[in-house]
DNA sequence: GCGACAG
DNA sequence: ATCTTGTCGC
């Protein structure tokens, strides 16, 4: 898939101030409301035998989520080799993997909280460029709107690709949960509201009333090692409520949503060929 | 100055 | 993210 807004793509060599101002431009461009080319209810991990093979092949490379075939959902994750990143993308349609690609790219920056997209964004775009199909939804490993300037990795790349995107993080970058998140039952969720560290930008407020994401308990085994919740947030073209709903629909038997879990495994698997 | 921070 | 042994449980 090709970047719709290459002008907003993360570029190496920018100063910290330039990176932050680019993030504000990204946030202003971002849409935190549902603007989808498909019905969220059609996203699932099911593989109904009623799936039409011919139609499946016909839309495999097109990307449109029309007809009976479920939307194409891409999971994206990375593994690292010295100063290089291996970005992996696994695309699912329902419960089936329809495409897997990866790219190895040089890293320009170290990890800096708040500037993750400038370290991993370029490498991820390299992998997405290898894709033959055109995903309807992008699921990133990291935050979207839950970010100091409301422009985390998922928002930045979602805007650059102008595709609906979701951010799934394993820990909270900023914002405040409405309730305590410890030891909650499977399926539980609570809003993450903007706090003092979140800036208002574009038409997006940042007062304590603004829900920038959700803490979501995707899995909880029979007690024991209490599983921490996931922190999900809209990347682009999605509301916070629909974002949790989609992550819930994409959750299988593990803590991470299936697209992310598969991309995570593929990133490690492919890594072996380079070390 | 203090605190806090996705992967 | 990555470095890593053993250990508990289905």
TrEMBL record:
It holds the Pfam family Endonuclease_5. GO terms for molecular function: deoxyribonuclease V activity; magnesium ion binding. Residues 1-22 are annotated as: Disordered. Its main location: cytoplasm. Keywords: Cytoplasm, DNA damage, DNA repair, Endonuclease, Hydrolase, Magnesium, Metal-binding, Nuclease. It is found in: Cytoplasm. The record marks 111 as: Interaction with target DNA. One of its GO terms (biological process) is DNA repair. GO terms for cellular component: cytoplasm. Gene3D superfamilies: archaeoglobus fulgidus dsm 4304 superfamily. It catalyses: Endonucleolytic cleavage at apurinic or apyrimidinic sites to products with a 5'-phosphate. Its cofactor is Mg(2+). Belongs to the endonuclease V family. This is Endonuclease V. It comes from Haloferax chudinovii. The gene is nfi.
């Amino acid at each position: 898939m090709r970047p719709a807004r290459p002008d907003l793509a993360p570029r190496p060599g920018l100063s910290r101030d330039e990176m932050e101002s680019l993030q504000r431009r990204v946030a202003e461009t971002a849409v935190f409301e549902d603007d989808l080319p498909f019905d969220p209810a059609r996203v699932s991990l099911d593989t109904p035998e009623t799936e039409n093979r011919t139609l499946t092949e016909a839309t495999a490379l097109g990307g449109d989520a029309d007809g009976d075939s479920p939307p194409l959902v891409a999971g994206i994750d990375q593994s690292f080799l010295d100063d290089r990143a291996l970005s992996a993308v696994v695309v699912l349609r329902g419960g089936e993997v329809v495409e897997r690609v990866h790219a190895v790219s040089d890293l320009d920056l170290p990890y800096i909280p708040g500037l993750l997209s400038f370290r991993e964004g370029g490498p991820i775009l390299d992998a997405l460029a290898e894709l033959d199909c055109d995903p309807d939804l992008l699921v990133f490993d990291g935050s979207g709107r839950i970010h100091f300037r409301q422009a985390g990795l998922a928002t930045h790349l979602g805007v650059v690709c102008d595709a609906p995107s979701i951010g799934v993080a394993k820990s909270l970058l900023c914002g405040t949960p409405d309730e305590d998140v410890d030891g909650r039952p499977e399926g539980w969720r609570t809003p993450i509201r903007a706090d003092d560290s979140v800036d208002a930008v574009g038409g997006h407020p940042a007062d304590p009333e603004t829900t920038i994401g959700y803490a979501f308990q995707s899995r909880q085994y029979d007690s024991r090692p209490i599983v921490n919740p996931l922190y999900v947030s809209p990347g682009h073209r999605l509301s916070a409520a629909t974002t949790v709903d989609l992550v819930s629909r994409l959750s299988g038997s593990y803590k991470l949503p299936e697209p992310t879990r598969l991309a995570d495994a593929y990133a490690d698997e492919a890594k072996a060929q380079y070390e």
